Amino acid sequence: MAQCVQSVLEFIQDSFVPMVAVLSSKEADRLTRKNNLNFSELLRPFCRLTSEGHIRDPNNQLQTVKNLRICVNNVVTTPTPSSAALSPAQYRQLGEVVLSCQPLEGALATAMRTGDYNLSLSVTTPWFETYRENFLQLMPASEHEFLNHYLACLLVVSSTEAVPVEQFLKLSQEQHRIQHSGEYTNPKWFIPNTLKYYVLLHDVSEGDDQRAETVYEDMKQRYGPQGCYLLKVNSRSSSAGEEEQIPDPWSQYLHKNNLRNQDVLDLTPAAAENSVDATEVDDGYSEERDGAVEAGSPDTHPLQLDADSSSASLRTLNDVSMDLKKGPRDPDSAAGGGGGGGGGGHGACLTLNDHDHIRQFIQEFTFRGLLPHIEKNIRQLNDQLVSRKGLSRSLFTATKKWFGGGKAPEKSISEPKSTCGLLYPPEAPELQIRKMADLCFLVQHYELAYSCYHTAKKDFLSDQAMLYAAGALEMAAVSAFLQGGAPRPYPAHYMDTAIQTYRDVCRNMVLAERCALLSAEILKSQAKYSEAATLLIKMTSEDSDLRSALLLEQAGHCFINMRSPMVRKFAFHMILAGHRFSKAGQRKHALRCYTQAMQVYKDRGWSLAEDHINFTIGRQSFTLGQQDTAVAAFKQILVNDSRQLATQQVAFLREYLYVHKCVLEDDEAGLPQLPLPFIHSSATRVYFGHERRLAEGEKQAATHVSLDQEYDPDLSAMWCHLEEQLVASANRGLVPVNFQPTQCCLNSQTDNLRPPLAVVEEPIIVEVTFRNPLKVPLALSDLSLLWGFTPADGLPGEPGEPGAGQEAAPSQVLQDDDAVTTEIITEFHLGPEETKMARLKLLPHRTGQLNIEGVVYSLASSGEMSSSSEAGQQPADLLVRGRQDLKIQGPRLNLTKEDKMLVRHGTDRRLEPVVTPPMPLMEVFFLQFPTALLCGEIRKAYVEFCNVSGVALRGLRVASTHPDFFTFGNSASTPSTSPPASPESCSAYQTLASPFRPGAAAAEALVSAGDFSQPSGVMQIPVEAGALQPGDSIQLPLWLRGPDQEGVHEISFLFYYESAEKGLKLSHRVLRHTVFICASRSLSVQASTCRSTAPPPHGSPEDRGSGGTLVFIDVENVNTSEGGVREFHIVQVSSSSQHWRLHKYINPDKDKDCKLSSRERTKLCFKAARCKPPPAPSDATHKYTFADLNLGNERIISSSTPCGDFFFRCCRTPEGQQAEPTSSRQSSGGKSQMFAPAQNRTADITSIAKKCNEFDLNIIVIWKAYVVEDNKQLILEGQLHVALQTIGKEASSLTPKEEAQEMMLLKFKSDLPPTVVAPFPELSQLIKTNLHYPETFQHRFTQDSLCLVPVTLTLSNCSLAQIDVIVDLRHKSTSSDSLDVHGSFAWVGQSQHKLQLPPQQVCSVTLRACFCRPGVYNLNTPRVFAKPAEQSAMCESSQQTASPALIIITNA
Fold first, then answer.
1. Angle value at C-alpha 1087, between 1144 and 974, nearest 5 degrees
2. Which DSSP symbol is given to 670?
3. CB within 8 A of 14, min separation 6: which ones?
4. Spatial distance between the Cα atoms of 327 and 483, rounded to a whole number of angstroms
5. 244 burial class (0-12, 13-18, 19+ CB within 10 angstroms)?
6. Contact in structure between 1285 and 1247 (CB atoms under 8 Å)
7. Angle at CA 964, nearest 5°, toward 960 and 966?
8. How many Å separate Cα 1015 from the centre of its chain?
9. Contact 1146, 1166 (CB under 8 A)
10. Is the pLDDT confidence value at 1443 over 80?
C-alpha cells in the first residue's frame, strides 16, 4: 500500500471513536447559524483532545487515554438502509470525494530504480485515505456491534430562552422518547442510561451575561456541576468580521460533506452505464432536483431531526444550484454550503477566545462527563459478567436452548444457518460482553478489550451467530495488534475468517470492506506486503467499481514496496485499477493509473499491452481536455510496430485523426508532426539534374546516373578513378588539391561531409522512403517538400511551404516561388505494410543556400478517402495536415579514442545543397551501337553530343575502363594515298586496290606512336572550333573492337566537359555511360619464330644482321557457328614494330586467300627482316614500321584508323618492356668487369642473353567473316594481335585459360643430347652457325685415297655485345645423329680458331674435311664456344648447333 499521512495507530483510533448526539433548540440553532454552522459542526474542529485523560479499570488500575477524539452529530431519526450495503447516494458521495481529491499539478514524484526499470511514482494516495475516512464515517450503525452507537447526548439550549430549564426538560424527554419508545430504529444508543449533558449556549454579542450566569447556577443545582456547561460564543457581531482575519478551521471538515456540490458535471453517463448502482444514482439526482428529500443524502446527515431536514435539504439544493452557476472549482462554493446556509464564511462571529471556549468545553465534557460515564458502565458490566461466571456454562447454554432467551426463532434445518434471523435481546449476556469490550476499546484499554472480544467470540461461535462472531473476531484481531508492549502477535487468521464470514456467509460487503481496510493497514505496518496485496485483491468484486479500483491500486503499491519489488505485477494491477476507475467515472484517476503502468510496459516488447494503454490514455486525456497528451498517446500507438488486427488499427487511426483535428482547430500555431507513415530518413536519396531522357528511334541515350540504379561502392570508386584521370588530363597531368569527385546521386553511403552543388534551373529530386507500418492502407495528399532558402546576395530567405498552386498534371501540382518551384503530388497511396518511395522535385531559380527540412502532406486513411470519394464529398472530417522532418544522422565516428568509447556521428549535408550559376549540360546519344561482337571484330558506330543548356561547353574528353574497346580515330595517321577505286560499302578500314603477288615484298609505312597514343588513356574528342555552343550538336564516328576474351563485358565511359566561363564553383561536369558487350569466339592465332638455317644470300643487307628469321602463324577457326557465322577469310597479315617487319610471304601452297570453316586450321609462313634505320636517330624510339602483306585483291592500310588505333591500344605492353632493356644496355656500357658487383655482372649477362633472343614483332591478322542473318549475307571485319617477343617461344591471341580449353595435339619429341653444364646456360644462343659445302662431292679414290672438301663455317653474332668465339675441331660427336652416318672423317689444318665478333656481325672460317672412302657424312661436328668479351673471368659457353649437315661422297 501507499504511504499514508496517519500512522496505523492513529488510523485505527480515529476509525472507532465515542459517538455523541446533539439535540438543540431552535433558538440555539439560530445562534449557531450566525456562523453558517449548526452546533455539531461548530464543535467538529475541536473534537480532538490535546491532553491526556485517565480512567480506572475494574481492577482499579489507572489507564491513560491519549489523543482521544470524539464524534458529535445531530440526531436524525430518518430510517437508514441495512448495514449490508451503502445507499446509492452514499456511493455517489464516495465517488465525489475521490473525484475531488487529485494529485497536485506539478507535484514532485518519487524516482525509483529497481532492476532495469526507472519509475517515477506518487508515494502517497490521498484520495484513498479520503475515501477510507468517508467510508468509515458513512457506515450505518449495526446491531451486532456498539462502536458507532451513541454514548451520550448534548442538550443545547440558548440563554435567551424565556425558561431555559423547560427547554432542557423538553429536549431530555425528546431524547428519552427517541431511545425508548421503539418508534425509531435510528439513531442507535449504546446503553439504556445514556449520558445527558446540558449545555447553555450564550450569545455574548446580544445576550445578558448576568442572566446567563444565573441560569447556569441553577443548572448546577439541578444537574450537578459535572453535567452542565455554559458555552459563550459570538463575541463579536458579523459586521466586524472584515476588520480582523480569524482562521477558519471548519472548512476542511465541512468540505467533505459538501463535495457533492462539486464536479457534478464530471460524472458522465458513461460512468453511470458501467456502475452497478448507476440507475439508482441517476434516480437520486432527479429526485433531488425536483426538491424531494432523499433519505440518507450526504448533505442531510443521518443524525439530523425530521423537522430541520427538509429545510436543510432545500438550502442545500439552493447551494448546489448556485455552485453550478459559479463553477465546479469556485472557492466560494467549496467554503459555503454548511449546515447553517446563507452566504459568507464560517465562524464570522467567533473570536479566538470563542475558539478557546469551545475547545475548553470539549475537554470539560470529555474528562468530567464522558470518561467517568464510560468508566462507570465498564464497572457495572464487569460486575454483571462476574456474577454470572458462577453459573455452569453448560447449564446456561441449556437454559437458553429451552427457553430461547428471547431470541428470534431460528430458520428451518433445511435452510443454511446465517445471521439474518438470529438476533440477541439487548439484555443478552453475550451482548453485554460485547458492550464491555467496545467500551474498553473506545477508551484504549486494548488488553481488557481483547479478553472480552475473545470471550464473546467463543459464545457467538457456539451459538452459530456468525455475524456477531465475525465482528468479535475482527475487533479481537485489532485489539491484539494495538496492545502496547504485549508480545501477542497479530492474529491475521482472525481477520481472514472475519472477512470470509462477512462476505460469503453474511453477504455484507460493507463490513468486509472495513475489515479488509483495517487488516491491510496492519499488514502494511508489519511489511507484509504480499499478504496485504492478496487481501486487497480478494475484496475486488463487480458490485462496486470504485472500491475495486482503489483496492487494486493499493495492491499495486504493495507489490512495488516489497523488499524485491514486483514491477510487472504493480503495472498489471495499476492497469486493472485504471480500468475500474474508468468504469466508475473517475477519468483522472484512470489516466493516472494507466500513465504509471506505462512506465513498466514501454519499450519492453509488450506491444499489445502498450497499444491498449496508449489507447486508453488517449481517450481519457481527450475527454479530460488534455489534448496534447491524447495526441501523444495515439501517436505512440501508430509509431510502434503494431501487431493488432487491421480492424483495430483502423479504429486507432480514426481516433488519432479525430483527436488531431480537434487539436488543430484549437491551435493554429503551425503544422504538427505526424507519426504516419514512417520515413526512413537515412535512406533518403538526393539527385541533382534532369532525369535521363529516353531517345527515340535508333538513338541510344547515355545511361548516366538515375535514381533507379542501386549504389555500388566498387563502381563509385571506379568512376572516381576515371574522373581523376580526366581532371589530371585537363590540368596538365596534376589533380587539383581541392578536387572533389562528382556525385549526382547522394545516399547514406556517399561522402556527404560537404554541401552538394546544384545548378540554377536544374531540378533537385529528393527520393523519400515511406513505410506504412499498419495493416490498413494510408492516403497522403498534397505531398511536397518543406525548404528554406538563403539567397547568395545575403538577403534573408523565407521558408517554403507550398500552397494551392496551379494544376500541372493529374497527380502533380507546381507551386511557383521567386526562388524555388515546388512540385506537389496530389495523391500518394500506401498499401498495408507497404514501403514506397516518393520522388519530390524542387527547381531553384536563384543562387544561394537551400535547406530541405522535411515533407508536408495531408493524412487520411484510404478507407475514409474511398468512402468520401464515392459519395462525392471531400474527406475534410478526418483529414489532418502536418509535416515530418527529415533528420539524417551522419556516419558514426571511429577515428579517435573518444569516438570509439562514445557514440558520435558525423555531419550529413546531403539536404543542404548550394545552388550555383548556370553550367553547360550535355547529352550523349549512340547510333548503330552493337550489343554483340566477335572477338576482335571491328564495327563502326556514331556518337552524337548535344548541348542542351544555355552555356557553351568545351574541353570534351572521355575515359573508359576499356580504352582498347573504342577509338575516335586520328586524321594525322591516315596515309596520303588516293581512296580505293571500289571501296566496300560497309568496310571500317581504309583500303587500296592491290592484287596479290606471290613472293612480293610487304608494303611498309613509318608511323609515329605519338599520333595514336594519348597520356593516361584519356582521349580528347575533336570538336570544331573547340567548343559546343548552346543548342548545337555534333556527330562523330566511333570505331569499336570486340574484346579478345569471350563473355559478357561491362564497359564504362566517362565523358568530361567544362564551361567556357572561368572561376565557377562547379569546375567541370561528367556524364556516365555503361554498356554490356557480349563477345563470341572468332579465330585463334598462334605465332612463333625461329632463325633460318639457310645461308643468307649475298647482297641482302637487311638479312645480314638477322641471318634470316622465319615467322610461322597458325590460324584456327574456334567459332562455334554462333550468330550464323559461316566461314572466315584471312585477308591480310600485317606487322608493326620498331625493329622488325614481315618481309615476304613464303607459304609453300601459294594460296591467294585463306578460307577457314568451323574448326579448320591453316599455317602461314613469313620471312622477317630487320627494319631500315630511320633517317633521324632521335626518333627511333617513337617510330613504328607497319608492313602489310595482303592475301587478297586489296590492301588494308594498317597504319591508319582504325587498325593502327587498336594496335597501339591493345599492344602497349611491349613498348614498356622494350624501354627497360635499352636502358640496361646503356647503363652497362661504360663499366669494367673488375669493379662491377656480382649482381651487376649477372644482370648484364642476363640482359645480353635476353637481347640475343629478343624479337619484338607484333602480328596483326585481319579477317573477314561471312554471316547469314535474316536471309541476308553480311560481311564482318576484325583483327587479332599477337606479340612475338622471344625467338623460339610461341605466342597466342587467346588467354592461357582459353587455350587450355582447346584440344592439344599429341607431340613426339626425340631425346635431347645431354647438355653441358655452363656457368650461364642462357648464353648458349649467342652465336648462330652455318656450314656451307657442296651437297654431293665426287672423288676418284683409285687415284687419290684422300678426299679433301672445302667447307665454310659462318658465325653470326646474334647479340648486341662483342663476343669471343672459339671453334674447336677436335671434338668427337657422341650424339645419336652422328652414329647413324656411315664412316668417319677428319678435319685437317688448324684444329682451333679464336675469333672476336662485333655486335650483330658475320664472320666466315674456311675449313677442310678429309674423307678416305665414299659415303654419307655429317659435317656438323665442330664445337663452338662463346662468351662476352667483357667477361674475361668467365668460361666460354657451348653454343647450340644446327641440324645435321649431311654430305654425300661418291667415287667417280
1. 60
2. S
3. 6, 69, 133
4. 49
5. exposed
6. no
7. 75
8. 49
9. yes
10. no
SS3 291: coil
* pLDDT of 679 higher than 80: yes
Residues 379, 384, 386, 387: what is their CA dihedral angle, to the nearest 10 degrees? Answer: 140
State how far the Cα of 195 lies from the Cα of 186, in Å rounded to an integer: 17
Q: Please answer whether residues 1266 and 1195 qualify as being in contact, where contact means their C-beta atoms are separated by less than 8 angstroms.
A: no
Q: How far apart are CA 464 and CA 417, in angstroms?
A: 7
The rounded radius of gyration (Å) of the Cα atoms in the chain is 60
Q: Is 106 strand, coil or helix?
A: coil
Confidence band for 796, pLDDT divided at 50, 70 and 90: low
Angle at 309 between CA 307 and CA 312, to 5 degrees: 120
pLDDT band at 814 (very low <50, low <70, confident <90, very high): low
Closest Cα partner for 1358 from 1424, 1419, 1420, 1313?
1424
Q: Which of 913, 663, 670, 687 is nearest to 801 (CA)?
A: 670
Cis ω before 187 (30° cut-off from 0): yes
Question: Contact at 8 Å (CB) between 418 and 505?
Answer: yes
172-176, 1111-1115, 1326-1330: least confident range: 1326-1330
pLDDT at position 22 over 90: yes
Give the number of other Cβ atoms within 10 Å of residue 738's Cβ.
6
Beta-strand ranges (E) seen in 798-886 are 799-800, 806-807, 812-815, 820-830, 835-844, 848-861, 880-885
Three-state SS at 1230: coil
**List of residues 6+ apart from 949 with CB closer than 8 A:** 918, 919, 920, 921, 922, 1030
Residue owning grid cell 428529500: 293
**Cα separation of 20 and 17, whole Å?**
9
Q: Are the C-beta atoms of 1095 and 1120 separated by less than 8 Å?
A: no
pTM assigned to the model: 0.69
Per-residue cell: 591? 489516466
647: Cβ contacts below 8 Å, ≥ 6 apart: none
Q: Do 1276 and 986 touch, CB atoms closer than 8 A?
A: no
- Reported as half-sphere exposure (CB side, CA atoms, 13 A), residue 1214 has a value of 25
What residue spans of 504-565 are helical by DSSP H? 509-525, 529-538, 545-560
- For residue 1084, which of 1051, 1045, 1121 has the smallest C-alpha distance? 1045
The residue to which cell 570509439 is assigned = 900
Phi, psi of 97, deg, nearest 5: -65, -45
**Where are the strands (E) in 1033-1157, listed by range?**
1033-1041, 1047-1059, 1068-1080, 1083-1091, 1109-1117, 1125-1137, 1140-1145, 1154-1156
CA distances to 342, 771, 940, 1124, 1274 from 1270, rounded to whole Å, are 114, 51, 21, 10, 10
**Which run of H or of E encompasses 1364?**
strand 1363-1368
